[in-house]
Amino acid sequence: MGHMLRGPVLEGASVRLEPLEVRHAADLAAAAEENRDTYGFTWVPRADEVGAYIDAQLARAATGRLAPYAQVSRASGRAVGATAYWEPRCWHSDDRLDAVEVGFTWLARSMQGTGVNAEAKLLLFGHAFEVWGVSRVDLKTDARNARSRAAIESVGARFEGVLRNWSRSWAPGEEDRLRDSAIFSVTAEEWPQCRERLRERVAGFLTRA
């Protein structure tokens, strides 16, 4: 049997990652409609699609291959986006988790550039490396999504290459097309340096708050 992902609550200074539930629907609907200009290549539901979006994520969670989260602002107590652990991989007979992806990430426009993303990655990476003991964490995005690629690089992940025709496109009008995916990673050996970089970034945002 494969590893069953189960993500606990992860608490930071500005963001709390809570396992996604139906109770987050109203907040996520409002967050998703603030301003959608940055969502061109990302799966972000419209307000009236949030219920189906949560159902789909919870169905994936039931398979053990996804641990979805709501990103909750500590200041407001409201869900302001989503993220997830995804695609657990185990290479040993004892079912130990060896690698995992962080994905399905989006934030309300007002939360972008505030340090929430950096702290969420600090929490997610930290749990994966320090509690689960993974060898690597993956991150992927549409190869055309320069904004997302820059955000991934800003949290210390290393670009590894582009996987052609890797997954379905989320770009408007491309529902039946495949996208090229840019893949990034952080390895266990890189994590201590990445952790310090993230801590410094988060501290800088908190100082300016």
Summarize this structure briefly.
The protein has helices at 25-32, 50-62, 116-132, 146-154, 191-208; strands at residues 10-11, 15-19, 66-73, 79-89, 99-107, 136-142, 158-168, 178-187.
Radius of gyration: 16 Å
Spans of at least 5 consecutive residues with low confidence: none
Give the topology string: H per helix, E per strand: EEHHEEEHEHEEH
Mean pLDDT: 91
Instruction: Tell me the strand percentage band.
Output: 25-35%
Main sheet: strands, sense, barrel: 8 strands, mixed
Q: What would you call the shape?
A: globular
Q: How do the strands of the widest beta sheet line up side by side?
A: 1-2-3-4-5-6-8-7
Beta strands, count: 8
Number of helices: 5
Kindly name the structural category: alpha+beta
Distance between the termini: 46 Å
Helix content, binned percent: 25-40%
Kindly list the characteristics that best describe this protein.
209 residues, alpha+beta, eight-stranded mixed sheet, 8 strands
How would you characterize the overall build of this protein?
With 209 residues, this protein is of the alpha+beta class. It has helices at 25-32, 50-62, 116-132, 146-154, 191-208, and strands spanning 10-11, 15-19, 66-73, 79-89, 99-107, 136-142, 158-168, 178-187. An eight-stranded mixed sheet has the order 1-2-3-4-5-6-8-7, sandwiched between helices. Helix 3 runs antiparallel to helix 5 (191-208). It is globular, with a radius of gyration of 16 Å.
